[in-house]
Each structure stands twice: as C-alpha cells, then as structure tokens.
Amino acid sequence: MKAYTPKEKLQHFLISNAVPIIFILMSAIAIPLSGFSATYLVQEMLIRLARNSFLVLSLIIPIVAGMGLNFGMVLGAMAGQIGLILVSDWAVVGMRGLLLAALIATPIAVALGYVCGAVLNRAKGREMVTSYILGFFVNGIYQLTVLYAFGKLIPIANSELVLSRGYGIRNAINLAGMRHGLDYLIPLRIGNLNVPVGTYLTIALFCLFIVWFRRTKLGQDMRAIGQDMGVAGAAGIPVEKTRIIAIIISTVLACYGQIIFLQNIGTMNTYNSHDQAGMFAIAALLIGGATVSKATIPNVFVGVILFHLMFVVSPMAGKQLMGQAQIGEYFRVFVSYGIIAISLALHAWKRQKDRERARRSLRGEA
Amino acid sequence: MVNRRNAVRILLAAALVLLGVYLYTSGKQHQMFVDNMGVEIDGRTYAPEASVRVAFDGGEPLELASGDRDVTQVVGPSHSVKVEVLNESGDVVKTLEGEFRWVSAKKGMFSIPAFLGGAPSPMIDSPGAE
C-alpha cells in the first residue's frame, strides 16, 4: 500500500472537514462584526446546546444502520407534540408533566417509527428522500388530527387550548407550567450564566446509551448492515427487522428530543414547531462534519455550536455590515438550507475521490 | 397463549400505565381558592381572623384581611401550609403550620378559619359549587 504524502493528508483532512472549516471561518468573521459579548454568546450557546443536542443525537443510529439522514424524525417530533398538547390540557406541570408527555408520546412514536421503517424497507437506497416525503404525508395526518379530532373525538377541557369554534387546537400553546422543567431541575448558576444541568445530564446519558448501543449485538448488526446489506443478510442478520428497529429508536428519541426542545422554548407552535425540527437537526449534524454515512457524537456538539453561533451572530453581523438585520437573517436561512445541499454534494464528491484513491493505492502509482 | 415473554410484556405495560397514573396525580395543577370568611362545618362556626398571611408549599405568601378571598395554584395531592395571624401593626402574633390533601375541584377552597380552628379538613365547597 502506498503511503500518503503530507500534501495528500492535508488535502484529505480539508475535504473531510470542509463544512466545519467553512463555518468556523464564517463565525470568525461574523462574531467580531456582531459586537456581542463573550458572556452573552457563551450563555446563548449553553442554552441552545441543551435545547437541540438531543434532537440531533437521535439522527446517529439510522446513519450507523446505513439509512442516511432520517428526515422522518419529524414523525417523532409530532408524537412528542401530541403528548404535550394532552398534558397541557390535563394541567400536569413541571418535570412530571414532561415525563407524562413522553410516556403518552412513546407508543405513538413507536407506531410511526414502525410505519416509517417498513416504508423505508421498500425504498432501499432512497431512504432520505422517502423519509422526507413521508414526513409531509404524516404531517397531513397530524394536521387533520389536531385541527379536527382534538376537541371533537379527543376531549379537550381547557378552553385556552381550543379554537373558538369549539374543536381544533389553537396555533400557539403556552407551556409555562413545563418551561425549563428539565433544564433547571438541578439549579446551577456560575457567575451570570444559568447552566441547564438537568438537560445536560440527560444528553450525557443519551451519549452513553449510544456508545453502549454500538457495542451490543444489535448495534454491531446495524453497523454490518450499514456497511453492506447483502453481506449482512448472507451472514444471517435480519436486515429488514434491524432497519425498522433503527428507525423506531430514532423516532422515539426524536420525540423525546422535541419535548426537551419545547420545554426549553416554553411555547409550542402547534402546526409548525415540528416542521423545521428535522431540517435544522440535519443541518447542524452536517455542519459538525458528519456525512450521510458517518456520524459521531463530537459531530453533534460541534455542529450544534457552529450552527447556532451563526443563528445568533448573523442578524447582528448583517445589520453592522449592510445596515439591516434582515439581510443577516436571510443569509442564515440561505446557509442553513444550502449547507444540506453542499454537504450532500461534498459527500458524493468525497466518495468519488476516495474510490479513485483506493483504486490508485491498489494499482500503485505509475 | 400467555408465555413468559408475553407475561413480562403485560407486566411492563401495566407498570407504565401505573407510572402514568402516578405522574398525573402527583403533577396535576389545581386552582385553589383561599378564603378568610366565617364558615360553618358540621354545626360548628369558625370565625375569620382580621389579617393573615398564608403560604402553600413554601411558595409566595398571600395576605388576606377578614372577608377576603384569593386564588392560587397548587400541584399534586398533598400540600403544606403556613398561616401567620397578623395584628394591626402587621406583626405576627400566631403561626400555625400543617398539611392537607386536595379533595376535588368541587371542594377546591381552603378555609383559613377552618384550618386555624382545627376543623377535620380545611377544604370546603369552592364558589362555583356553592
């Protein structure tokens, strides 16, 4: 095998980490322009890291199983929201309210995850686009349920939740009783910074679960399927069942992630909150240096920090640079969606380069 | 057929349902009226205090004069209460602490005179149920 030259190694490193490097450079330019203090940015990052990490972590398991980025995580987000609507109606507050919402949402998320996994088994090789469209389909069912079934078929006693016509849920739900129920379960204040210890402990447990899960028989089966479905099937691994399990786990975890996300925000936009959950979580993961076929826990944290750093500083940087905060905001929206396209294109390009390199190293340089 | 695996599943499902019931009862928020008016319970009359300060579950205290009624939120089935009776200059002349249980929304009013007078339960009919 041919040893790589330092130039090739550098090129490989730059190609592998192109997206995080671009974002680090953009942040390095935007932070001084925004004029925000370090304390403010650290506080914002602490809150946003707690708010989003769980959702982003839920994407790792399907990637391990070779199913790509699970755009179908919005199904889990919808299940979580249904749990939160019911718990808000029953006026169960605090951490108990969040746990009850998770308990109610879990069977819904399992059922939706099963449907999603079964559909994706019929669309092998096209999982990402299929799960993306499936998200739109289930969104329709969710809207129908929340707009017509709630208050009619499913009794809702709290008039503050129901539309004036007597059925259907209002556009915005105040989660004041559950706000920061997990974040500040263990209150910790360092100087001027509030640290959401409860959420960080939950995220740490989830990280340990992922590390442990990868070492289990099921985790190893998923890795084998992710590398080559045909070989895994020939080795006796139940490919389709394992893929369904991967999607169910991801959907259930996305459901918990959405509950954690919304308890941090304190308000739920009934018809839109779940819409962007998938897109933003996927963008954050890709910005952290993950690809369609490989994602690690550090990718999640690097991605969430870089993505949300851009969220915070872009409007102010735009205002300082162009005189309008809206320009910075447009830029951020453009970047957050564009990064998915760039990452997918870079992934395809990198795979082609890797294949060429592998061919060259096997052949020997002429 | 109920084999070992199915039995475990049924037990797990039952445990989750029980957990749900526990979370619901212990996390349910109730709107509770707090009343400082004279009340008659089981033939015995309890007179109001001129001025009291009352705090539930260590929360923000409410101040009520004789004949006042206020509303607060309590979470769960059992609660602690601290009632301080104040004199005309606002000094505490008597403090009584105790515990009580939430009965139902119908009996959703906490009577301070009943609590201070040692009634079996300080919870009386709420205004809507009267």
Low-confidence stretches of chain B: none
The span between the termini of chain B is 54 Å
Beta-strand residue percentage of chain B: 35-45%
Overall, the morphology of chain A is globular
- The tally of domains of chain A stands at 1
Count of alpha and pi helical runs of chain A: 14
- Residue share in helix of chain A: over 70%
State the helicity of chain B in percent bands: 10-25%
Description:
The complex is a heterodimer of chains A (366) and B (130). Chain A is mainly α. Chain A has helices at residues 6-16, 18-34, 38-57, 60-64, 73-90, 94-121, 127-149, 197-215, 217-227, 229-234, 239-265, 275-287, 297-322, 325-363; strands at 172-174, 189-190, 193-194, 267-269. In chain A, a hairpin with a 2-residue loop joins strand 2 and strand 3 (193-194). The two termini of chain A are 13 Å apart. Chain B has 130 residues and is an alpha+beta fold. Chain B has one domain (29-129). Chain B is built from two helices and ten strands. In chain B, the strands form three sheets. In chain B, strands 6-1-9-10 form a four-stranded mixed beta sheet. In chain B, strands 5-4-7-8 form a four-stranded antiparallel beta sheet, with no helix packed on it. Chain B starts with a helix and ends in a 6-residue tail after the last strand. The chains are: A mainly alpha (366), B alpha+beta (130). The A-B interface holds A 90-97, 99-100, 103-104, 177 and B 16, 19-20, 23-24, 26-30, 75.
